[in-house]
Amino acid sequence: MLEYIDSIRKIAEKILKEGTVEMVIGFRRGTVPLMNEPCVVKKPEDVKHLVWDSSCGVNLANYLPDRKEKIGIVAKGCDSRNIVTHIIENKIKREQLYIIGIPCKGMIDRRKITGMLEVEIESAVETAEGITVKGGGVEKTFRKADVLQDNCAICIHRNPVLSDEPAAGPVVEQQGVDRYEDVRRIEGMATEEKFRFFDDLLAECIRCYACRNACPLCYCPTCFVDESRPQWVGKGQDPSDIRTFHFLRAYHCAGRCTDCGACERACPMGIKVRLLTKKLEKDALELFNWEAGLSLEVRPPLDTYKPEDPDEFIK
Amino acid sequence: MGLEPGRIHYSWISSAESTKFVDVVKTVTEAVRALGPNKQFVKKMAKVA
Amino acid sequence: MKVVKINKQKWTEGIEALKNMYRLYGPVKEDRFHNFTLLEKGVSPDFNFQNTRLSPKGVIYPQTEVMFHYTLDESREDHHVMKEAAGEAAPRAIVGIRPCDAAAFLLVKRNFDTPEYQDPYWVRAYEGTTLVGLACQQPCQTCFCTTAGCGPFHEEGLDVLLVQETDAFLAKALTAKGENLLKAAGWGEAGDGGTIEKMKQDAETRIRTAVHTDRLAEKTIPDLFDAPFWDDVAFSCINCGTCTYVCPTCWCFDIQDEVSGKAGLRLRNWDSCMYPLFTFHGSGHNPRNAKTKRVRQRFMHKLKYYVDKYHNGIQCVGCGRCIRLCPVNIDIRRVCELMNTYAASR
To answer: What residues of chain B lie within 8 A of the CB of A236, using their CB?
Structure first.
């Protein structure tokens, strides 16, 4: 994907020069290995700062809600689906956007690499073949497929669904992926076991809300955990309050989640928070044949009523 | 999420269906009472005092 | 101060002996990461880490701490009377704290323990705890302690400094508290402290990055406050609390009452200047109502307000956690450089 950099810069420069947009949202080179920082470029001469590689996992759609400018935005498959969702939910207007589409080959999970290397990564170089990292006197090359973010490994919408100008030709979509193996495993647990599973899953949570804030879907002016009149949930480290936060956050994403993995990537404690949203994503697919953010024309299942909506759970 | 089965109940009751509402509330209350006090997802902290 | 040598067997015996005298905290590997926890019998601290993901700040200053408890039951004589919570018993000791994290307590102390006001919870916990530091021989790439008023072998803030040798520890008692701990552990064999200085210099050369803070004090607050770079610095910020929660020097909190039936608790929880609620007034007004303002506050507090108020350097020990764990790669070193070199055009 390194080859996208030139075309991203060219497109960005063009739309800034022509005045099509006032700003371009993309990534600049990060200060630590395998991290890039979302940034905004406003002058054509600054497009040189824009980069692209497999460490651009932050979902840039998160930076769009309620902006008034005309914006160019670099968008992977998942980002584009969240842009569609934003447009449907009136958080941004289609006319405001110039989408630079990125046919995505997946993003790297740097924690996987750290885990396998067992020493701190000092430097990392990405090539078409893989990722070569150095640390603690050791050099190791990883195949990208082995160190992808979990959501990228099972992604079936790598190409942007909405794009004004693609940075490259489409990539081949993955076929025959079993997206819900882990969710089925949890669904199969007995009640007690399930409760313990989630206790363990969330045990390390420090309530920094990085998962919520990294998510493009979470744009409420005041989140329910921040409400004080009435206060819905305690603010301390009580496990029941932590669990309430996580479950309600996930429920708010039902029928909207694109499984972009931004929440999981952002978690400083490495909690697999996607397991919560994935269950709802699976339900949306199975009950309503719905995948979020694929079309501007169809309303999401949870804000429409159809006589044939499943209702077996209503007694 | 590991809540004991039987503690959550969904119903669709129109504002005109008062008798259905009464019936559902009775049934649900009885069913939950039969399960006994909730064991999972109970906040324990404030009991310290 | 004297240096003692502790061989492997003495080490394990001493750790067990300490558990009879102290509530002993140390780093333990949980799943993938090390974390400071209370060491049960038979559990030794595991020093096979560069630095822990979270600092042991929470041992002294828990994320959620009961301050008072009370009852609303009016049939009881003591209803609506706030009773101070007992807190955790002392003495306690933290074994294996990094020098930066120990130095951080000294910065926090300037807030919680002043001539006018003492925070009884924090002061009690801090004074009742002996800090046994573990010199940092393999600093992280993101460490910049040597230019943040600290260092991999920094002694200030510690009671004992441990230095790891191939098959033994050298322990340098730095305070009376530290000497007592060494005595309680039965560690008394005289050691040769001559090698420590060399190891210290080696470790310091392994700190690869730096911040420049020399010109922060000379800037005016309005100049830095109105500097043009804040929008760019804050753009990527998602306003989560990661940087503040993992920071060993962040001390802000929020007080909450929680009532269940007639029983009530007054709790103190960590809070974060990244959250809109942090400054949300009862009137509905929020003076820091935008992300940029909150991001600016964090950096201005650490790198300017603190500098001006205490004349004690920056409110940062250079542990690098906020850099390593920030979900969007906001780097305090970069921001510090922007602030330090900023020249207002007037």
So the answer is: 45
